[in-house]
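Bit of a strange request maybe. I'm writing a small parser for structure token strings and I need a real example to test against, not something I typed by hand. Could someone generate the tokens for this chain?
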Amino acid sequence: MTVRLTQFAGGGGCACKIPPGELDALVATLSSDTSQPVAPAAELLVGLDGGGDDAAVVRLDGERAIVTTADFFTPVVDDAYDWGRIAAANALSDVYAMGGTPWAAVNLLAWPRETLPMELAAEVLRGGREVAHAAGCQVSGGHSVTDPEPKYGMSVVGMVDPARMLRLDAAEPGRALTLTKPLGTGVLNARHKATGTVFPEAVAVMTGLNRDASLAAVAAGVRAGTDVTGFGLLGHAYRMARASGVTLALDAAAVPLLADARAAAVDGFVSGGSRRNLDWVAPRVEFGALPEVERLLLADAQTSGGLLLAGEVPGHPVVGEVLPRGEAPVVVRS
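Reply from user aminoacidic:
Good idea to test on real output. This should exercise your parser:
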């Protein structure tokens, strides 16, 4: 019997994140706390004050800083091996989104051991290890718990040059906006969960590493970036605009989409996470006459999405530009 892993999860992939508005309120309670560690062993370069970057960064010395992150989620596809690959690529992406190189990772696994065979868990771990090894990242051990809902991801440690780091609050007016992967994994994953239809292009995008795009961005002098995941392109664009004190203008027609994404959205395969994204970001976005389905696609909750970069990166589409701060943090031009 074929096991459909997505049927064991209430949400799927990064769409199962805490809604962005609730997360903002939660993080605000920590940001208001001015307590500091006793005799800290390292200087914090990027933390909560940066506006919600993809990872924490602490200085090791003048030319090196440690990047640390953790990311895990419920099954986004039914195939255990592919889910492991997707989750690992997604966790590694947090390091690439800071302009860093992942060095070592440990597994994070929650498993309903009484309802799902451990052989499937082994396939999940195998997929994760394969992608991490392809990235040149060591994988050893981790932590596992029994849980009614399966979850998998990684905690990753990497290295970055502090002078060449990517961060949310460094976007400057006059820069182009580049997006390194097409949108649409959210609606296609929703269709996959509902119907069992497999979308190989979506799997290929989600398992693809952001390594080369990150290296190219750093080499091109880009200093502002983030990866596009559970809050959708609009949500992550808003977070960058807010942190940098600018307006991001997106050209809707220039944003690349996976081949079957628009049809899936038109047919109603939109996750609750994507709709919550749009509800949260809508008051902060100037949409003009952009149709509802196009708004939903721009807010689509991505899993292991690409990098949104404030700068032009060869080989990747320009989807907008950074403007001086206007009335709306994000403007969508149709």
